[in-house]
Amino acid sequence: MNWSVISMLLFIVLAPFAGGLLQGVDRKITARMQGRQGPPLLQPFYDLHKLFSKQSVVVNHLQDFLVCGFLVFIVFTGALFFWGGDLLLVFFALTLAEIFFIMSSCSANSPYSSMGAQRELMQAMAYEPMVLMVAIGFYMVTGSFGVSDIIGNSTPAIVWLPGIFAGFLYILTIKFRKSPFDLSTSHHAHQEMVRGLTTEISGNILGLVELSHWYENIFLLGVVALFLLDANWWSVPVAIAVCFGAYFLEILIDNVFPRVKWQSMLKSAWLVTLVAGVTNFMVLVLVK
């Protein structure tokens, strides 16, 4: 059994535990920033157990199927990434998972769910161009879309892609559903449309949604690490440290900035994509 298969299996088995702990740390740090003690570190696991022990109020069976599809494609996305597969296929699977999640919200026939689905589509429009630029940037630097080939390069990709890295960090706020871009669903009390996408989802189906987000968060941090990883062993601890730093930055932004309208999110994300991404590409073409 090679390292690619081991990495894939480790992601499938350990990502939910790592994602749950990450959310517990998020809650704890957020509480400290707000002058509160906060819940226990393992509170997300208690909440997930409670959700799975509750009876689900099923709106329709199509919604359950779509939520399960969301989980399956998120797990497939991360498994393919940690296996060292094609980065374009990885991002395609991630987009397909997002489509399943949006469709599950639309199938509920609820005004809050529909509004959340519309805003989730706007969020996808905001971050997808930057996600595509990430894949293209890695190809321009390494000549391959393969994750294993990118990691095997002698120089970390961030040396050539600082603008792409900065742009990806910017859209992570959207992907992590942090303020100021927590538009479609929110963990804050200021949300004006209840729970948006997950308004009509309850019980063990809502537990599957939470589990999917844990898998997705670990995968996204894996993409952050990909910018730092190379053939040198010391790139691994550096990448892990940068991932923790990036996540702390997202928590800080979440607690400092108020939520904005979707128009501001779309404009700012595209502006960052154009300035950081396109400029990085232009410099890369001139240098390499």
Rg over alpha carbons: 19 Å
Estimated structural class: mainly alpha
What is the number of domains? 1
Q: What's the SSE pattern?
A: HHHHHHHHHH
Q: What kind of assembly state do the chains in view correspond to?
A: single chain
- The helicity comes to over 70%
Main sheet properties: none
Using the alpha-carbon principal axes, give the shape: globular
Write down the overall mean pLDDT: 89
Stretches with pLDDT under 50, minimum 5 residues: none
Account of the protein in words:
The protein has one domain (3-287). The protein has 288 residues and is mainly alpha-helical. The chain is globular, with a radius of gyration of 19 Å. The chain has helices at 3-33, 43-53, 61-83, 87-106, 111-142, 147-151, 162-175, 203-226, 235-256, 262-287. The two termini are 37 Å apart. The mean pLDDT is 89. This is NADH-quinone oxidoreductase subunit H. Keywords: Membrane, Transmembrane, Transmembrane helix. Its main location: membrane. It is found in: Membrane.
Which features characterize this protein?
288 residues, 10 helices, 72% helix, transmembrane helix, ComplexI_Subunit1, mainly alpha
Write a short abstract of this structure.
Keywords: Membrane, Transmembrane, Transmembrane helix. By secondary structure, this protein is mainly alpha-helical. The protein contains ten helices and no strands.
